[in-house]
Amino acid sequence: MSETSTAKPSAAKTSAAKTSAVKTSAVKASIAGTSEPQPLHERLSFDLDVDIAVVGAGLAGLTVALEAARLGASVAVLEGRHVGWNASGHQLGTVMPGYGVPIGDLIARIGFEDTSELWALSKQGAEFVRATATEQLIPGIAPSEGALEVSNVDVGDQLISRLQMLGEDFETEVEGWQVDRVRAELKTDRYFHGVYYPKAFQIDGRKYVHGLAALARRAGARIFEDTPVVSIDPSGIRKRIVTPSARLRASHIVLAGNVHLGATLRRLSETLLPVWRYGAVTAPLGDRLGETIAFRGSVADSDGIDHFRVVDGDRLMWASPETTWAARPDRFATAIQRRIRTIFPSLDKVEISEVWGGAIGQTVHGMPQIGQLRRGLWVASGFGRQGLNTSAMAGQLIARSILWGDERWRLFSPFELVWAGGMTGRIAGYAIGQWARGSAAAAGTLARYRERARTQERIREARVAEANRQAGSGPAPLRPPPPRPRSERPQPTAPANSGEGG
């Protein structure tokens, strides 16, 4: 998203950044199966007055711009690099209701009524994406239906309880899949039960973020790339933003950035734990992919380790586990390749065609940061592990709060800004992630061992039953009669007394 800076980048750095942007665009265009060039936007080089200034041209910031422009406001978006350069342009494109925090944990923290309202907002966000991501509005968006969440352990009882809560209490269309159904769609013994969301869907994520930018421009918003923010003065009725080559004034400023907000907004950026996730797309796999993965929606495991879906008919898009340290994306190609082989041994060693990565900002409490920090200064951030629906909902909510006085952003007030712990937090986050993945792997191994043990026990019982059945069809074996009770036994007769006299 947006990156702030205290100095104008050198020509060499600017050239390198633009070269990197072109390469990234080419990679994602290859993934989408199209060579369509990505849109370019000018740098802000003149002073400007607007109603709303948005810092960050990612999913949330562009949604704010689109919605506010549609409602008649003048909007300017400032982006330090280019549209969707970070996390917003590097995701699998799954859209479904919910947040990064389990629904039971939300109820425990804020109560059932507020949780129900938050869930309804997340559903509205998903519907906004569905209405926006159409071939008419964004060509090549390539939508597909359905999402499946699979469990790494056998949790049948918990599945029933969760289905009842989602279906009855939160009016969400869901289906429970038994083990046989899951394994019919996914040829692996790693997964057990599943929760299927028929109303969920997938889109080309990079097409979507650039489509949002195009729609916002058509609605009247102005987008400026390569325009880092040097300083922000949020005091007064008209707020002021300084960039390397111009100044901007606005009645409202929306901080829709991520962990790259930088020094001028360090207090906000330090409430986010930077987490990197890397993804890959395989080379075409032909018929063997269809024989292994019949399901054509997205699949995510309940532990948040694996997330994948089929793209372009016979290629597999796969997201790796998270890390709190940045690295070159190509270093993760082998790890993702190995992970695919572990889950689907029948695919053997697949060829990785492209690898990419991006940093997300994860909050301490696990919920997004949405609301007003002070009069006229708004935040829409912390969307790590949240999904496309949540950034869309946040953009709508803030635009309508500014222009219509919608107060529903206060539902997010319990999830305040909390310091993420700096370097210590990153180390702790890495350790917790490693422990969680290790625990999930151990639980999965134990679940599969128990399943095999139950299967062997059923086979043994079937063999015993068959042996008894065959034994029962022959002549009855000769057995000695059972001993009679003592009372029925004959009493011994006293012998004659030959020494008795008369």
Description:
This is Glycine/D-amino acid oxidase. By secondary structure, the chain is an alpha/beta fold. The protein has a domain at 1-141 and 203-272 and 363-420: FAD/NAD(P)-binding domain (3-Layer(bba) Sandwich). It is built from twelve helices and 17 strands. The protein has helices at residues 11-32, 59-70, 103-110, 112-132, 156-169, 179-185, 205-219, 266-269, 287-292, 333-343, 388-404, 422-472, and strands spanning 48-55, 75-78, 94-95, 144-150, 175-177, 194-202, 222-224, 231-233, 239-242, 247-255, 273-282, 298-301, 307-311, 315-323, 352-362, 369-374, 377-381. The protein is elongated, with a radius of gyration of 31 Å. The N and C termini lie far apart (131 Å).
Shape: elongated
Helix content: 25-40%
C-alpha end-to-end distance: 131 Å
Mean pLDDT: 80
The SSE string, one letter per element, is: HEHEEHHEHEHEHEEEEHEHEEEHEEEHH
What low-confidence regions span 5 or more consecutive residues with pLDDT below 50? 1-39, 419-440, 493-502
CATH topology of the domain at 1-141 and 203-272 and 363-420: FAD/NAD(P)-binding domain
CATH homologous superfamily identity of the domain at 1-141 and 203-272 and 363-420: FAD/NAD(P)-binding domain
Q: State the helix count.
A: 12
CATH architectural label of the domain at 1-141 and 203-272 and 363-420? 3-Layer(bba) Sandwich
Strand content of the residues, in percent?
Answer: 15-25%
Compute the number of strand runs.
17
Oligomer description: single chain
Radius of gyration: 31 Å
CATH class of the domain at 1-141 and 203-272 and 363-420: Alpha Beta
What is the SS-derived class?
A: alpha/beta
Q: What does the largest sheet look like?
A: 9 strands, mixed
